[in-house]
């Protein structure tokens, strides 16, 4: 990436695309491709999902490594969709969802146990190595436990997809991969490059709802820059981060299967299944996303 163009890899090579304004919204990557695809093309991703589904149908024991929102949601989905599976959720911290609203950890633990999942806290997986599968059908923990594991789903080890920015401007990428972001959601020192979602270094939760707050702010500022005679003359509006635990920063939904979950709104925390189901659990925002891109 440069100040005025990006190089994009394609199926036939690479292509240089020039821009007047750019938005870096490349999200995060997981070490487990089952969670976020790294294959190119819809067909390859479909084949990957079908293969994983077949594996789950024949497996007996699955370990989910990581008790954040993704790990909790996956463990619940597995117990609901594959009731024959023994599912163990393992987390390195002493509480599930430790960065979520205060009541979520205990509520999620109670629900997962009620669904028949096993939960081990403060005892992370150390073998197999992160991102790999057990060669001997066993997962081993820091505390010395040995668990049967036909499959380990790695819901830990996320990192922002910002390597291409680091290749051009390493001084603007933190050690954790987050991009240094100014008050207007721009890459520091680059007036024409905006950043959104998981890649910003703002003090916010790395959630889809957070990215939805970034979008209108960036669109408004790009419109202001287009309308101004010069970039310096544009009247931009600073973005106010949604601080976790305050106001809109309290917004969060963790699904627990297709029919329930936990919901945090600015005015309270709720474990009312109907609320989570209505907002997220039934279709995981797919209809909303399709509407956003004009497919509904």
UniProtKB/TrEMBL annotation:
Keyword Methyltransferase attributed: no
Gene3D superfamilies for this protein: 3.50.50.100
A GO term for molecular function: electron-transferring-flavoprotein dehydrogenase activity
InterPro entries linked to this entry: FAD/NAD-bd_sf, FAD/NAD-binding_dom
Alphabetical UniProt keywords: FAD, Flavoprotein, Oxidoreductase
Gene Ontology, cellular component aspect: cytoplasm
Pfam families: Pyr_redox_2 (PF07992)
UniProt keyword annotation of Oxidoreductase present: yes
Membrane-spanning residues: none
The FAD/NAD(P)-binding domain, residue ranges: 7-204
Family: Belongs to the FAD-dependent oxidoreductase family.
Name of the protein in question: FAD-dependent oxidoreductase
